[in-house]
Amino acid sequence: MTTLVFGHKSPDTDSTGSPLVWAWYLNEVKGVDAKPVLLGQPNTEAAFMLKRWGFDMLDIIEDVADDQPCVIVDTNNPAELPANINGADVQAIIDHHKLVGGLETKGPIDITIRPLACTATIMYDLMGDDAAKMPENIKGAALTCILSDTLEFRSPTTTDRDREVVAALAADLGVNVTEYAAEMFAAKSDVSEFSDAELIRMDSKEYEVSGTKFRVSVLETTAPEIPLGRKESLIETFKTVAAEDGVDEVLLFVVDILKEEATLLIPNDVVKGVAEKSFGATVEGDAVVLPGIMSRKKQIIPNLAV
Fold first, then answer.
1. Strand-pair partners of 101
2. Res 193: pLDDT
3. Contact of 154 with 294, CB cutoff 8 Å
4. For residue range 68-118, what is the model confidence (pLDDT) as tens digits?
5. What is the 3-state secondary structure (H, E, C) of the chain?
6. Strand-pair category, 212-221 with 204-209
7. pLDDT in tens, 125-164
8. Going edge to edge, which strands form the sheet with 89-95?
9. What is the CA radius of gyration of the chain?
10. pTM of structure
11. Residue 266: what are its φ and ψ, rounded to 5°?
12. Percent of the chain with pLDDT over 90
């Protein structure tokens, strides 16, 4: 049976590109029949990556069957995975997030979780000498993933190893990192065709703090004026998204990649309190700027307080 390789729901660039990278490795190096798939529509930057490096759009699945062999990448959180994930045959996990718990497997599996900025960096290291065999499009996917997750090294999650792998891949591909990252971020910033609900869910994760369930959403952009120009309608849509998704509140952070700051939208007193307790912010009005806040994984989630 074909092994499915997938990342988390609301797939960003890493959860779109890393399945491509690892499925190639399983097929071409390990001799395992593998297929990369997605758990939702990719964001605009991920779609840019697919087109730029000549990939067809990946199949999107809603769930997995009992005993379906699969490899999970870029997450280990059951809330971000298919509903029947514990019925599937999970064979490996490759991730760079904290261990959440709740996954149940058919037997012992390979688990690699390392404190690097990107799953693709971990995969590059796991491949060893075989990484040199990657074709151009797979190297391009890996490069895009790392530049995306590090925000071209602006994110505090960036490590020296992420920088080294980017340098190696860019040299192999003949890519100017600064120019290519600018293309990526321009694609990521083009959100004009998305509805408010789609923007809120585009790059989001569920997280519970002291009994309060949040949808923590991040929009990384070089043009923050575009989503912030829709502030009122986005805030109004928070209510619908929260009700449909079974959460108590939506936290939407618009991350300005160039200024290296985030703007948190403030729909009510609950979120105002979160901003004050979590980030020491002084809130006036329906938005607050949080200087230096760039990473959900390292700066937002660990600091959330109600």
1. none
2. 85
3. yes
4. 999 999 999 999 999 999 999 999 999 999 999 999 999 999 999 999 999
5. CCEEEECCCCCCHHHHHHHHHHHHHHHHCCCCCEEECECCCCCHHHHHHHHHCCCCCCCECCCCCCCCEEEEECCCCHHHCCCCHHHCEEEEEEECCCCCCCCCCCCCCEEEECCCCCHHHHHHHHHHHHHHHCCHHHHHHHHHHHHHHHCCCCCCCCCHHHHHHHHHHHHHHCCCHHHHHHHHHHHHHCCCCCCHHHHHHHCEEEEEECCEEEEEEEEEECCCHHHHCCHHHHHHHHHHHHHHHCCCEEEEEEEECCCCEEEEECCCHHHHHHHHHHHCCCCCCCEEEEECCCCHHHHHHHHCCC
6. antiparallel
7. 999 999 999 999 999 999 999 999 999 999 999 999 999 9
8. 34-36, 3-6, 69-73, 89-95, 110-113
9. 19
10. 0.92
11. -115, 95
12. 97
- Tokens coding 60: 């999107």
Residue range 154-209, pLDDT digits in tens: 999 999 999 999 999 999 999 999 999 999 999 999 888 899 999 999 899 999 99
Tokens coding 127: 């491949």
Instruction: Count how many residues are written for the chain.
Output: 306
CA distance 72 to 26: 13
Query: Cα angle at 295 between 190 and 83, to 5 degrees?
Result: 80
Return d(Cα 296, Cα 203) in angstroms, integer. 10
Reading the block at residue 167, the tokens are 């340098």
25 near 127, Cβ under 8 Å? yes
**What distance in Å separates the CA atoms of residue 34 and residue 254, rounded to the nearest whole number?**
36
pLDDT per position as a tens digit, 26-65: 999 999 999 999 999 999 999 999 999 999 999 999 999 9
Q: Name, in order, each residue with C-beta under 8 angstroms of 77's C-beta and a sequence gap of 6 or more.
A: 8, 97, 100, 102, 205
Residue 8 has pLDDT above 90, yes or no: yes
Q: pLDDT at position 192, please? A: 83
